[in-house]
Amino acid sequence: AGDQNLFTSLYPTLSQQLPREPMEWRRSYGRAPKMIHLESNFVQFKEELLPKEGNKALLTFPFLHIYWTECCDTEVYKTTVKDDITKWQNVLRAHNSVDWLIVVVESDAKKKNKTNILPRTSIVDKIRNDFCNKQSDRCVVLSDPLKDSSRSQESWNAFLTKLRTLLLMSFTKNLGKFEDDMRTLREKRTEPGWSFCEYFMVQEELAFVFEMLQQFEDALVQYDELDALFSQYVVNFGAGGKCL
Q: Could you give the strand order of the β-sheet that contains 139-143, starting from the edge strand earlier in sequence?
């Protein structure tokens, strides 16, 4: 969300650098931590993309929402950017989407063309005071990202570390909820109207997710469980039990 032209100018560098460094992925249930590379698909913010109640999909809605701005003008912030961020957060809140980040891009070239400006720390402080409450780390500064300088690279590295961390946190949380919902659905398999085909699509999506993360052993476990469940249904049907 936010300044689409700004994001478009930074996207090639972002998409190239994001998966470069691995992240340690820690999960619950005593599972051993693993190193993974994060690749993300960025889409323009639209309310209809947000998950709806009862949505069983894991790959069809965005996990982390990012607002981009390079505002350094006091009046522009007061009259447009602040209202825009407010509307964005209200939509997220209405859909119980709590994973977000505001990125303030600092550009020396842009500042030179402005007269009524605030120091970048003041703009960031205003955003943090207006929107972040106790989550001050949800507003970060990206300094001169298109410059070839050590300062720019340091800024990129800090931003990418924050982005990878938030992406992994959000993904892990959503994955955990998806697995919980899947287990609940599986436990209902003896109830009338339960569909193996519907359940198959849910657990197959979980396998796809593990394949995308190159966690092939975890993906294979999902298919093994589906195979065992299907075999049990065939046995039940042969013994006069319920049909698929």
A: 65-69, 100-106, 139-143
Could you tell me which residues come within 8 angstroms of residue 200 by beta carbon, excluding any fewer than 6 positions away?
226, 230
- Compute the CA torsion angle 162, 163, 165, 169 (nearest 10 deg): 140
| pLDDT in single tens digits along all 244 residues of the chain | 999 999 999 999 999 999 888 888 887 766 778 888 888 889 999 988 888 776 667 777 888 999 999 988 888 888 999 999 999 999 999 988 889 999 999 877 665 555 555 554 578 888 988 898 878 789 999 988 888 888 889 999 999 999 999 999 988 888 888 888 889 888 888 888 888 888 888 899 899 888 887 788 889 999 998 888 888 777 766 555 554 4
The three-point CA angle 43-151-35 to 5° equals 55
| CB neighbour list of residue 21: distance below 8 Å, 6 or more residues apart | 37, 160, 161, 164
Residue 96's CB is within 10 A of a number of other CB atoms, namely: 9
Q: Name every residue whose Cβ is closer than 8 Å to that of residue 155 and which is 6 or more positions away in sequence.
A: 141, 142, 143, 144, 145
Measure the CA–CA gap between 178 and 100, rounded to whole angstroms. 20
Which residue, among 24, 58, 65, 21, has the nearest Cα to 39 in the 3D structure?
A: 21
The CA distance from 81 to 26, in Å, is: 37
Tracing tokens 């990202």 back to the chain, one arrives at: 145
**In whole angstroms, what is the distance from residue 94 CA to residue 33 CA?**
34
Q: CA-to-CA distance for 95 and 52, rounded, in angstroms?
A: 7
Distance of alpha carbon 63 from alpha carbon 234, whole angstroms:
38
